[in-house]
């Protein structure tokens, strides 16, 4: 299919269009048995016309998805330590460090040192746990905001909110980022016993893989023997 | 400038010929699935045969005891590396369906996995997410549905910041979405649409591509037009999608492909295309078309047709909307560069993927049907001859080419004059030799217009043995009347 050489230049040229030639229709044009009439055509979702392109699309997807999910080869770098005060985690790949940083240090509550998966949850936490004004307002109006982004519902108590999360949003009843506070009043920094109680959960048993409750600063980690650099498991309440 | 993200190619264990054969089989399977309207299915997302070839090299089947061991080690091991290693082993095992089955039947296994997923050990989190991803990939519903307790967390993590982790969560969600309507019935109230709307603001290309994939699967669901697309249209997703499709140095092919398909699924469902038009969809897509045409000239890049296809579809369908008329004043809809771009793409498709030619010609039809301006452009840019060149490709293509020519011819003598003389007549005589009724029928329509508007056309037709060409169709039911009418006109004027 040979295209006129000027075409490529036209594409690169300025926007604009030709002055249209005059339109002059003869009514005899559309008389029976001839029936042609120009019309734009639309095709709905499932139309067979789309079969070819759809098949090509899915071939492509199959190729892409085959490559997803395995741990990609990461370029290794000389070991380095996380620079956040009190954290001794060691890494040999930048992406691992990136994930560590975002998980543990990025959305950390400056009052109680808990880490959260997102800024949104952190903000909610600070408001509900550390803001005395919140407590006062909560006595008179619905202040507990639904945790699902996009849902604007507010509730009187955190229990009501949890019920809403479960019933309306099909969240698990033990959703880990919605732990209720045990006591009234804002949680003050340094309230180590409080934090201890929270992290242990109701039955007092330390559960591995529990909610994002990292307390990295006000509890001293056991001293590391000099000369030994080990990757640090950062649980301040382990092995009680 | 178009950038391709880093490749993630795994070494394949078979030769080129085998690959081609495999591909043909996959194509056939997909075609069959589409006819049965089963194109969005887990089974088709993962190429089974290729998997098996690799399996021998990697995964073993683990029994209950071994799985227990791995989980316990991951949970309570003392050494960081040990715990991670346990999960890596588990993940490899989970590539096998047998291991998957054993895993989900083990009491507390999912709970433990979710616990590790939400732990404060970043690397364990990642590995746990990979385990979950393996499970989500399974063809067995029971295995996939075992992942459901994790979905609220996967969605929560979409608002995080760790791009690798988010990417993994998105592909996992994409797999879950495809699984069944029941799964989607949980994901929707859990807020998947707002979560995606928040996540689409990420600057990471890998995240965006994964998000586009997940969203495209969501939009392709059977119930999407009623249950999903309205809330997607009500969110900020369309604006962001259009932004990601804007041509320019930041346009990334992999990302653009995904969101172009998302737009296609939305548009062809015809829920509220007027809204998309007010958000500038026509304008953005028109500019993208121009950019694509530029790109195909510059690079041998495999994959541009993957983007061309949905863009062509979106534009074609949008042009049928009444709202499109209203914004007709906008430059893109009158700009003849669109026609130039389209022909460059048609040439590209002819070489690369001829089966996609109908889609390009569909757009050409919609552009020219009611537009004297674009019909004139076809003539002034000398595009009739290249168009005629396509007549031998296939019946579907021929009908479309002839339809476009009719679009031009029906506008009157000034247009037919420019179609004459030239190769048009001999091309028409060729198409009259086709046996396909639709091709012949469209040729007859075009002939009638030429006889009507172009003096001398009927005579030239006669001189070139046109009557004989018509004769062979005298008995065909759908063609008879028109054949006779043309014979009369040719002979008697």
Largest sheet of chain B: none
Mean pLDDT of chain A: 75
The residue ranges of chain B in which pLDDT falls below 50 over 5 or more consecutive positions are 1-13, 46-53
| Overall 3D shape of chain B | elongated
Shape of chain A: elongated
Helix content of chain A: 25-40%
What percentage of amino acids of chain A are in beta strands?
Answer: under 5%
InterPro entries (chain A): ZNF511, Znf_C2H2_type
Organism (chain A): Tursiops truncatus (Atlantic bottle-nosed dolphin)
Domain C2H2-type (chain A): 82-105, 109-130, 146-169
Protein name (chain A): Zinc finger protein 511 isoform X4
What does this structure look like?
Chain A: Residues 1-25 are annotated as: Disordered. Chain A: This is Zinc finger protein 511 isoform X4. Chain A: InterPro entries: ZNF511, Znf_C2H2_type. Chain A: Residues 82-105, 109-130, 146-169 form the C2H2-type domain. Chain B: This is Transmembrane and coiled-coil domain-containing protein 6 isoform X1. Chain B: InterPro entries: ARM-like, ARM-type_fold, Armadillo. The complex is a heterodimer of chains A (240) and B (493). Chain A has helices spanning 6-12, 51-66, 94-106, 119-130, 132-138, 158-167, 192-200, and strands at residues 80-81, 90-91, 144-145, 154-155. Residues 187-240 of chain A have low confidence and may be disordered. Chain A has seven helices and four strands, in the order ααββαααββαα. Chain A has 240 residues and is mainly alpha-helical. In chain A, the strands form two sheets. Chain A has a two-stranded antiparallel ribbon with strand order 1-2. A two-stranded antiparallel sheet of chain A has the order 3-4. Chain B is mainly α. Chain B is 71% helix and 0% strand. Chain B has helices spanning 16-35, 42-45, 48-58, 64-76, 80-93, 97-105, 109-117, 122-136, 141-145, 151-157, 163-179, 181-187, 192-199, 205-220, 224-227, 229-233, 237-244, 253-268, 273-278, 281-298, 304-318, 322-326, 331-334, 337-352, 357-368, 372-380, 384-389, 395-409, 413-419, 424-431, 437-453, 457-463, 466-471, 480-492. Chain B is elongated. The model of chain B is unreliable at 1-13 and 46-53 (pLDDT under 50). At the A-B interface, helix 1, helix 2, helix 3 and helix 4 of A face helix 1, helix 5, helix 7, helix 8 and helix 10 of B.
